[in-house]
Amino acid sequence: MFSTVTLLVPYYVFKNYLGSQTFKILLYYPQIVSSMVLIVIYKFFVDQAYPQLIETFTGNRPYGLLMNLDTQLGTLIFFSQYFTLGNGVIIYTSIMANTSPELIEAAKIDGAGDLRQFWHIIIPAMYPTLVLGWMGIFTGVFSVQFYVFAFYGLNAEGHLMTISYFMTKIVMGARADQYPYVAAMGAYITAIVTPITLLTRKYLIKLGPSED
Amino acid sequence: MKNKKILKNVNWFTVSTFIFLVIYSILTVVLLGWGILTAFKDKWDLADNVFGLPKKWMFSNFSDVMGRLTVPITKTNIIMFNGIPRKLSQIYNVGFFEMFYNSLVYTLFGSFIASIGPVVMGYAIGKFDYKFNKFLTGYIVFSMSFTLVGGGPASIDFRKFLGLYDNMWGESLLTFGWCSINTLMYAGIFGGVSKEYHEAAWLDGANELTIMLRIMLPFALNLYGTFFVIRIIGAWNTYGEVLMYVPSHPTISYATYLMSVSKDASLADTPHRIATAVLMLVPTTAVFVVFRNKFI
Prior knowledge:
The complex is a heterodimer. Chain A is an all-alpha fold. Chain A has helices at 2-5, 8-14, 20-32, 35-58, 69-97, 101-109, 114-143, 148-152, 163-172, 179-207. By secondary structure, chain B is mainly alpha-helical. Chain B has helices spanning 2-8, 12-39, 43-48, 60-68, 96-127, 132-145, 152-162, 168-173, 181-191, 195-203, 208-216, 221-237, 240-245, 252-261, 270-290, 292-295; strands at residues 71-81, 84-94. The longest helix of chain B is centred in the middle third of the chain and has 32 residues, at 96-127. The chains are: A mainly alpha, B mainly alpha. Chains A and B meet through helix 2, helix 3, helix 4, helix 5 and helix 7 of A and helix 2, helix 7, helix 12, helix 13 and helix 14 of B.
């Protein structure tokens, strides 16, 4: 959902406002670089550089964000959202570029501002793609990890465990005797999520806006 | 004139989004900049001087990584001992250059194989008007919407069944596929090419393969180039699939991951770990700079 809320960012880039070209490069670059590279740098930054930074300004040295149990999950979620923002910008900007320029021009002539154009023209034009993204929410509940495996390998603590991480831990831990149970668990989840996803897609498209 | 255009667009949306993007950009620059500077420090310099420039630029960190970065793998051989076959497991350390070779095979060969499927299927769907094409298109859309949860064990069993498990060339071959948005995009391009090109080549005696490769493919060459470059970057950065399906043939990305989570790494201090990550950054940054027009 966060990536849907940040549709305004791709819209800003699509409209070519101040600094768009520079922001495009800085948004795309983390997508080009391996998530592993950013994770290594981020890990040591939040655990070593961040406490030093806070100590410099306040005189108190806190725990690193990944060392503190209270901030661990939030730090991982923040990284996953930061890292995926650029991906959304790439996809949504391309889709917005396919919107009819005559429609946007006509809206401008009629006095429609940026947000009105965004709500009444851009959103309906890209609605089917947005629906695809929202459908991912249901499977995302069972497939999201917030990069826990990349940060901790097989050694993440219990409060960070998600269903996906649990299944990954069994598969990567080479416990072949457990494979049938993981496969069965996956099949159950898929059987539950698939009809919900397809029905949701059907009704979202039926009830949603269209270009007409 | 430019200032007037900027002022004309000042409203709460542009201002708040601009501030958000500035904060995002500062975070990216600070993270990467700090990482690159830290890669040039030694651990004592880092302890005293977290944010400053290195007191002594340790270029040796990178040569240390290239010389000492290894991934231990277990190889099991069957040997005859007193006439009885026995399993002998040995630990073998894969070095940097062997990992680099594995990365190249998976990146270049794997990306080439992966990029063939969408082109061929896109051509078949876009150029030929058969009823079966509707099924293929629907199947592609369905497979993009449908996410199989927990498919790892089945994938591993499938590879073992085919005899391609833990085989880098085999894993690269298995990247072949066509159920993606790329296929539909190629279908759109080939469908838009006039049939007269096809007919003229046919009259000149060209067969279907010649027409596809020499007449039609040039129309989609730009898109193919973009997808190929994106695929190369993705393949270079992949570590999860390598870890799961080709554990005896680690890549640089796999080594970086292993080093970042392992407590027993021989290059365990922060500057060396970050130097490994920075080394991984170099090829993808070079590709991004050279092919930036395809991304931006």
